[in-house]
Amino acid sequence: MSTVLVDRPSPGVAVVTLNRPRSLNAMSLELVHELHAVLDDLAADADCRAIVLTGAGRGFCSGHDLGEMRTDGASSQRMSPVEMMGVQEAFAGLTVRLRTVPQPVVAAVNGPAAGGGLALALAADTRVCSESATFGAAFVRIGLSGCDVGVSYLLPRVVSTTLAFEMMLTGRLVDAAEAERAGLVLRVVPDGDVVPAALEVVDRICANSPFGVRMTKEVMWANLDAPSLQTAIDLENRTQIVCVQTSDQSEAIAAFMDKRPPEFTNS
User: Fold this and answer.
1) Any idea which architecture 4-206 has in CATH?
2) Which tens digit of pLDDT belongs to each residue from 164-214?
3) Where do the structural domains in the chain lie, given as residue ranges?
């Protein structure tokens, strides 16, 4: 059975489900490679407008499969540094891939999101979660640095540095209510309703022009690292000049003036 499932509940929308429910969707190397392949395929799919990322069963993703890690540890002396780096980069590369797919990604966190699972949630463009969801940077609790797979970069940008440091230094779990207060998630919904809640967000995104949405994601992420306000504005200015020349921008204005839904052609 595939460790990553893809469903198409409506035109333009892909629901990607991590499918190792017995282990709370722990990240085996097989799952990591399959998720890379799925995201590569979706990134190249011009008909896909938005992605929902969730987990099967009662968990979102519990992080690195500790059974696999223990096996790797026993054989670590037989792995060269180059081989070990290749494995590390495969895991960490998922964080970058979620950021760089052109489609917005909404994480539907339906249970524990720990370690690498927290990283996947953070790498999404926004998040909703169920009441039973928990979030934890668990790396430090298994003898590793609390900074891994992009969490040390992403978490302080989503919540305060004060909370990010405490989470990474202690490995403490944050429940859904605290996550909402801290701005880690957009909203909390009852268990079982998290994917529909994410699809509501996706529907509102898909009501806008495909190119405008794509450029919004790209510029937002770029400007989180902008060295100055002027640099951010310069990128915004150039992007708007490109967007205003698209047919969909003209259609959006015409639809607004005519008080009708727009008919976008992604052109």
Assistant:
1) Alpha-Beta Complex (3.90)
2) 999 999 999 999 999 999 999 999 999 999 999 999 999 999 999 999 999
3) 4-206, 210-258
